[in-house]
Amino acid sequence: MDRKNIITPNQTIHILLAMKKKFIKLNTSVYENMPRYIKLNLVQSLLETLD
Fold first, then answer.
1. Each residue of 5-33: pLDDT tens digit?
2. Cβ-proximal residues to 42 (8 Å cutoff; 6+ apart), any chain
3. DSSP letter string, the chain
4. 5-11 contact pairs (CB < 8 A, 24+)
């Protein structure tokens, strides 16, 4: 597995803050049911928006 796809707890906090900052509201069950590659793309795009 590519190491950059492993999400640390610290990154998770940053992702949640980024989502909150951008007013992105995800229904948990909707997120859980997404294909994994979509989740990774979503997370990656959120990480890239962090300063």
1. 666 777 777 777 777 666 555 556 666 67
2. 34
3. --GGGPPPHHHHHHHHHHHHHTT----HHHHHTS-HHHHHHHHHHHHHT--
4. 5/40, 7/43, 11/47
Report pLDDT for 2.
54
Tokens 């928006």 belong to residue: 49
At residue 1, does pLDDT exceed 50?
A: no
Q: Can you read off the two tokens belonging to residue 49?
A: 């928006």
Q: Cβ–Cβ contacts within 10 Å for residue 48, how many?
A: 8
